[in-house]
Amino acid sequence: MNSVNKAVVLRIEELLAEKKMTRYRLAMNSGVTHSTLKNIMHETVTDSLLSTTIQIAGGFDMTVSEFLDSPLFAEENLNI
Predict the structure, then answer these.
(1) Quick check: 26 and 37 in contact, CB under 8 A?
(2) Longest dimension (CA), the chain
(3) Distance (Å, rounded) from C-alpha 36 to C-alpha 40?
């Protein structure tokens, strides 16, 4: 099982690969600072804010619903 934060990291990595996008480009597209994104990816952030997740989804040109539409976020796959 993954924590919610780990699931967010895995989803970001999945979408970066799928869209052939760098973390830097995601930061620029989403308006989330590169340092904040780096902290999320290295799991030094203990609680990702929904507003930041919404911005990250926007950086991928998708809604937060589309971002969260992944088996990574199924309750049985998360340690909540």
Answers:
(1) yes
(2) 33
(3) 6
Query: Quick check: pTM over 0.85?
Result: no
Report the distance separating Cα 68 and Cα 10, nearest Å. Answer: 11
Q: For 3-68, give the DSSP string.
A: -HHHHHHHHHHHHHHHTT--HHHHHHHH---HHHHHHHHTT--SS--HHHHHHHHHHTTS-HHHHH
CA distance 44 to 33: 15
CATH of domain 4-68: 1.10.260.40
- Which residues are 32's β-sheet partners? none
Half-sphere exposure of 65 toward its Cβ, with a 13 Å CA cutoff?
0
Mean pLDDT by 10 residues, the chain (80 residues): 82 95 95 91 79 90 93 84
